[in-house]
Amino acid sequence: MKLFRKLPLQSYLFEGDDDYFFFRDIFIKLRILESLRDSPTFLTTLTLNSAERADVIAHKLYGRSDLFWTLYLVNDIVDPNEWLMDTRSIDVFIKKKYDNPGATHHYVRNGQVADLRANQIMINKRPFGTVDSDPEFDIIDPTTYYPVSNAEHEESVNDSKRIIRAIRKEYMPSFLIDVEKKLRGTNV
């Protein structure tokens, strides 16, 4: 891969060896300047369909599929598995992760995740007609809390990955020059 050839070389002398061992420094960290992270001038926003891979998007945007890594960088994706999964992949992922994909993952109330800790739940039962004096205790009305299954949760997380940012095409050449300088250890 071209990107790895651009990483700086490091040397290491093993004990008892006379020759240095050279290797690529894969731990170098690139990042987008904070001032550019949300800049509509520098970045554009895209909505993906479920089958679009990073290399395909890079080819559409820049005419170069090898620039897929810029999409990972701009969207803070370290592991390519964090990219939007297609329908088949998300189904396989859910079945592998959960014994029971239909089991409740969490509850939602008024569009917000509800904190339903065991000591806070009481379903419209007041023993002996008493009033609960503990302000931390929540009387839960089951008609206002909706369960979200494991599968629904994972599908929602995956759907949130549909909207991504990308470097605008006109800024890509300058960005790549800056990256080259960074990789060579030159101040940008």
Q: How would you concisely characterize the structure shown here?
A:
By secondary structure, this protein is of the alpha+beta class. It has 7 helices and 7 strands. The two termini are about 25 Å apart.
Describe the structure.
The protein is α+β, with helices and mostly antiparallel strands. The chain is built from seven helices and seven strands. The protein has helices spanning 2-6, 34-37, 54-62, 68-74, 87-97, 150-159, 172-184; strands at 9-12, 21-24, 43-47, 104-109, 112-114, 146-149, 163-167. Helix 3 crosses helix 4 (68-74). The relative contact order is 0.17.
Helix fraction, binned, reads 25-40%
Q: Helical element count?
A: 7
Structural class: alpha+beta
- The percent range for strand residues is 15-25%
Assembly of the depicted chains: single chain
Secondary-structure map with pairings?
Layout: H1 2-6, E1 9-12, E2 21-24, H2 34-37, E3 43-47, H3 54-62, H4 68-74, H5 87-97, E4 104-109, E5 112-114, E6 146-149, H6 150-159, E7 163-167, H7 172-184
Antiparallel strand pairs: 1-2, 3-7, 4-5, 4-6
Helix pairs in contact: 3-4
